[in-house]
Amino acid sequence: MPFRVDPITFKKSTITKERSEAYAELISKIETENFRVKQSDIRGLREFNDFIYNSITRNELWKSIPSDTRFPGYFSSLADHAIATVSIAVPLAVEVFKKGFDFGSEYDNEEIKDLLRTEKGVIEVCRLLSLLHDIGKHPPEKHHIKTREYVEKILEKVGLTNLSKILAESASRHHYRSTMDKEYQPKTKLEWIVAFADKISSTQERGLSGEFTKLLEQYKWLLGVENSKKNAERIEKIVEFIECVKLHKGDIKNYINDDIIYTTIPVNFSEIQKIDEKIFNASNILNDAKIGVLCIEVAGIHKFVTASDYKKYISGASALIDDTLNEAKKEIEEMLCPECIIYAKGGSLLAIIPPSYFEEIKERICQIFEEKTRVINLKLPESIEFELWELKYGPRIYRIDDADIEMSLKLAEKRNFGGVVSSVIDSLETTEDVSNSEIIRVSEVCPICHEYKRSEKPECEHLIDDKKEKVCERCCLAIREDKNLREEKEVICINLEKERAEVEVISIDLKPDISYTRIVKKVGKILKGKLRNNPIVAEFKSRGVNKIYFAPVETWDCIGRQHIGRDYSEKCDEIYDIAFIKGDGDNFGKIKGSMPSITLYKQISKLFEDVIEGSIAEALSEVIIKQLEIKLEKDVKDGLTLELPFDVVFVGGDDFLVLIDAAFIFVFLMAFRRNLQEMFGERKDKFDKKENESLSIIPLGVSMGIAVVKNRMPIKSTLDVLDDLLRRSKQKSKSEASGFGGEIFVSLKKFESIPTRDEVKEVFDSTNDIKYTQFPISGKDLVNFIEDLKFFAQRKVSPNWIKGVFGDGKSPLDSYVDLLWRKAREEEKSKWEMFDKIERMHKSELKHPERGFVFKHMDIAESLEIIGGKLSLEGLPIREIMLKLLGE
User: Fold this and answer.
1) Inter-residue contact 139 to 3 (CB < 8 Å)
2) H-helix or E-strand spanning residue 293
3) Which residues pair with 579 in a beta bridge?
4) Could you tell me the CA-to-CA distances from 124 to 41, 192, 195, 339, 869 in Å, in that order?
5) Is the pLDDT of residue 457 over 50?
6) What is the band of 733 on the pLDDT scale with cuts at 50, 70, 90?
7) Is the pLDDT at 878 greater than 80, yes or no?
8) Are residues 699 and 807 in the same domain?
9) Shared-domain flag, residues 824 and 850
């Protein structure tokens, strides 16, 4: 039975049906939606291509079918391969067209001739052929024959009868090996372009070659679940080669000259050039056309987002960058097609384009950023041109003779598409400064950012600290963006009037597609699933509650503001704790950089995006569930409105910043970890798992820095210590970067006054081999830490009592002896248990003096304060609620 294997987690998904369902699925969708092309012109073809693109990217079947049943082709899906083929073929075709070639001259059909006379026509015809070139799979054998049959039927079905036969023939001619029937070998230049793109994007010939010596256990596991003799023989040969390199078993030269080895791991470049001769000499067929790899990064993104202590500005600035990047992305999509975008997130964009488009795209994108942000500069490459073969075998600097075996082995890890991307990123240069460097009078400085000149435009007037003030255009744009995102009084509505609870995210479809809106949508979807058959729904109904609304926390607009004006609610005078959570992925960039093909690079980029956004959404939905459970402890009534106890400031790539009610920290962390490990597997020392389980092939995870501060503390100071806390978590992650699977690493600190790095250093760095915090800790240790918190919460112990256990802060040994004395004298059972617990927590510390001594009880006390801080003011049953917030 054929199966697909995830390239990161080696999760094996068996395909239950031997025959192709991709074609039937597409035909069914065409019939269901009654899709017809009104006319066989460029516009009609574009609409149909968009229909196909949306169909296969949103269809789980296309994503589940492997692009090939042979190793390592089953690392990618049919959908991923089709889209990657388009991303190469379309820019290549445009470049050949720009060089003056008439694609229509090679066809007799008049309609196709007319289409291919224009650039847009070339794009859409090439796109169609690329999207459907493998629709004849599965099984892969002779799929070109079925592709011809299926494409013709599909085009007739949608009303492209006059083009159906000629396009079906071209779509089927995408293999040029000598053993292929000549009728199915490329004949026209357009067919050659699709064939080359198919070859470059294919994962069939390239395994996971980046740092291949670290994949021995993983390939051995794969060999154990392989049910194809041919696949098993190939994997076994690779296992033997890695053992030869790593354990010095056998003669490396024998393996380097083996075609199974050098086609999977490019260690023998001389032989590679022979077997892939057509790719290396593609310029002869393609009129010397090259391909462009465009990378754009926002310069100084951190400075732009944190230019003010005004929370509305920070949220708005983050959204503004997301929104502007989306507009730049759409610009490229409209010029070419959506498939050409590899990723566009977190202030970075990667796309495959025709080199001749570079100057036009650069000028237009710089214009977009200047218009929408006023002061943002971009990082752009000086050159983007690559030979076609470089997309498969890495930058030309690695095309050298392999006389030295050690050098060959090192180069093999870099000969991939990830190496191309790295070389482009290394060449990025910042564009000319678009900001104004004029000298500004003090009275004219923007009161929000204190950096740029106030604008005289009427729309740039805002109420700041009791009076109307003009602000600079940058701040005006950011605040307006924030208002557009967060203008609704309610964000989420749970409707209990029907038999099953319905969850509506209010007006979200009218908002721009940025991290905030995507995550809120996901929260709504996850919440709906969590409420299905959940007893709290019946409980609310029994109390007469028909609808529950979640509204933004009114006072969060004034977070960080120490002078409150009339634009804020009187509630802003309230002082409470809020948690800033900053996260960053561990090893995400490293594994992306090792991906051998565009197909896997794009696939992995999407996976990591789903992991981060999905884990945040899962964690925030769990926060809402806990909030509902807590609300049931009080009287409730119809039309209930609760505060939404979180805000997503930004999610970019694998980093994020989330604000959350401090009491929900551990709910967030444990739900985030649970989702992360569902996708990457639990951290293990050995690559040992079931076939349908996930376990990442290298240690992956997310490090977080968490600062709990008073709501009126300056945001800039908070963000500064967040960076320090995150750095410490990442150091912890790096020190435990072995094994497999996913894990989180956390540094947590509560601040009573303005947070400073000095305070972090004082607590986190040992003095005389003594530390006052356990953090940073791994997720595994966090689970044990939370169990300790539950122990003390169950006994209603005061945080101050815990802090005072070690008396006046003597030496660790003296403090420990003092603790034993107090324990021996204690007659009350509950207190004796707590003394005993604290003793056992610190006993191991004294056994290993070389590691220093950690006063672990301080974190326990501080965390109990964080969880229970607000509850004591609300008159709620503290013990029960604290235990809910700790996962019971």
Assistant:
1) no
2) strand 291-299
3) 660, 708
4) 10, 16, 16, 12, 61
5) yes
6) very high
7) no
8) no
9) yes
Of 717, 734, 765, the residue that ends a domain is 765
Predicted confidence band of residue 17 (pLDDT cuts 50, 70, 90):
low
Q: What range does the domain containing 697 cover?
A: 545-765
Half-sphere exposure of 753 (CA within 13 A, CB side): 4
Last residue of a domain, one of 177, 201, 225: 201
* Tokens standing for residue 353: 């384009």
Percentage of residues in the chain having pLDDT higher than 70: 94
Q: In the structure, what pLDDT confidence band is assigned to residue 330 with cuts at 50, 70 and 90?
A: very high
Asked whether residue 681 falls in the same domain as residue 802, the answer is: no
User: Tokens 């509305």 belong to which residue?
Assistant: 312
Instruction: Give per-residue pLDDT as tens, 229-287.
Output: 999 999 999 999 999 998 877 788 888 889 899 889 999 999 999 999 999 999 999 99
How confident is the model over 100-124, as a mean pLDDT?
Answer: 94
User: Which parts of 719-873 are beta strand (E)?
Assistant: 741-750, 770-771, 777-778, 853-854
Strands 3-5 and 12-14: antiparallel
Q: What is the pLDDT of residues 791-847, one digit of tens each?
A: 999 988 888 888 888 755 568 888 888 888 888 888 888 889 888 988 888 887 777
Same domain, 758 and 776: no
Q: Are 771 and 855 in contact (CB under 8 A)?
A: yes
30-34 mean pLDDT: 90
Q: Which helix (H) or strand (E) holds 385?
A: strand 385-386
CATH number at residue 682: 3.30.70.270
Q: Annotate 102-126 with b (16+ C-beta within 10 A) or e (fewer).
A: ebbebbeeeebbebbeebbbbbbbb
Look at residue 594 and tell me if it is in a domain.
Answer: yes
Average pLDDT, the chain: 89
Q: Does a structural domain hold residue 675?
A: yes
751 and 798 assigned to the same domain: no
Give the CA count within 13 Å in the CB-facing half-sphere of 40: 20
Give kind and range of the element (H or E) at residue 12: strand 12-14
Instruction: Report whether 608 contacts 592 (CB < 8 A).
Output: yes
One-letter identity of residue 871: L
pLDDT of 675-697, one tens digit each?
Answer: 999 999 999 999 999 999 999 99
646-652 and 502-505 beta bridge pairing: unpaired
- What is the pLDDT at residue 873? 47
d(CA 850, CA 489): 56
DSSP letter at 828?
A: S
Cis preceding linkage at 552, omega within 30: no
Rounded to whole angstroms, the Cα distance separating 594 from 575 reads 48
How many domains does the structure of the chain reveal?
Answer: 3
749 and 609 in a common domain: yes
* Contact residues for 224 (Cβ-Cβ < 8 A; gap 6+): none
**At 168, which CATH number?**
1.10.3210
CA separation, residue 594 to residues 46, 268, 589 (Å): 34, 18, 9
Kindly give, in sequence order, each residue whose CB lies less than 8 Å from that of residue 532, ignoring residues fewer than 6 positions away.
500, 501
**634 within domain boundaries:** yes
Q: How far is CA 838 from the centre of its chain?
A: 40
- The arithmetic mean of pLDDT across residues 344-368, rounded, is 94
Please indicate, yes or no, whether residues 587 and 560 belong to a single structural domain of this protein: yes
Tell whether 177 is covered by a domain: yes
Q: How many CA atoms lie within 13 A of 812 on its CB side?
A: 22
R_g over Cα of the chain: 30
Question: What is the DSSP track for 587-654?
Answer: SHHHHHTT-SSHHHHHHHHHHHHHHHHHHHHHHHHHHHHHHHHHHTTS---SSEEEEE-EEEEEEETT
Q: What percent of the residues of the chain are helix, what percent strand, and what percent coil, each to the nearest 5?
A: 55, 15, 30
Residues 156 and 46 in one domain: yes
Q: What is the pLDDT of residue 564?
A: 45
Percent of the chain with pLDDT over 90: 54
pLDDT-wise least confident of 308-317, 329-338, 437-446, 513-522:
437-446
